[in-house]
Amino acid sequence: GTTLGQAAAEKGRYYGAAVGTYKFNDTTYMNLVNREFNSLVAENEMKWDATEPQQGRFTYTNGDRIVSHALSRGMTVRGHTLLWHAQQPDWAKNMSGSALRNAAINHVTQVATHFRGQIYAWDVVNEAFADGGSGGRRDSNLQRTGNDWIEAAFRAARAADPNAKLCYNDYNTDGINAKSTGIYNMVRDFKSRGVPIDCVGFQSHLGSSVPGDYQANLQRFADLGVDVQITELDILQANANAYAAVTRACLAVSRCTGITVWGVRDCDSWRGGDNALLFDCSGNKKAAYNAVLDTL
Ligand code: XIL
User: Which atom of ligand 1 lies closest to the CA of 262?
Assistant: First the structure.
């Protein structure tokens, strides 16, 4: 393959990018998106604040633009994200208890229903575990509605879009550590009790190196019977060895179905001056790009 998407497809995987509709009129950007990637995810357009800015009033225009752009070009779409403690609309931030629980589950049902049949994998729940050594849940308004909020969200998503793969997605879970083990235990519990979960996303916002047990961590989740995906990859100064190592790890785990980078060019990145992506601000391929393509 001569592009990331083609080379990944030859290995039975996808190579995707997070995109923003506010850049869809930038031709350098769109040429890269269309040439290199075979999967897209909305960087912001499908989050709760974007899709339900007022309770019960849903806005899908920008999410729909990304979906139709992708599907019309034969790309798949990751849905990001149905429930998260961040980027909630103000009305939800101010709710609690059963009112918030009902609003959250309604949100899952409405959004997953709107996009039914169009999403390859949904990040049903994003970043619900705490950093550090506890291995437990993050405190949030959603968590305070009861520990079963995550399984309730997955059940609602399955009912709304039975063909989408349903993922749990988080960061700082790239090696074997207390946080990833807490998630591992949740996934094992969900599988044993029949709670619908199909995949785990590893954001992989990385420093300049990859944990030595990165592949082993992906594999232990895959061994639970879920797919794994690298969902938001970016690496400090786009270290080419690290980009290659992530690529190798995914290829070595048969249930690792694809990799998504969190943006296209360095200047599109949420990480500011980290130069963490595969294309420079002019759209030129960086060394990391060649490392990934050579590894695929
Ligand atoms: C980031 C976006 O890139 C920014 O544009 C936005 O201002 C904040 O969110 N983890 C996630 C993503 O799951 O949704 C975040 O995206 C980056 C961290």
Answer: 3
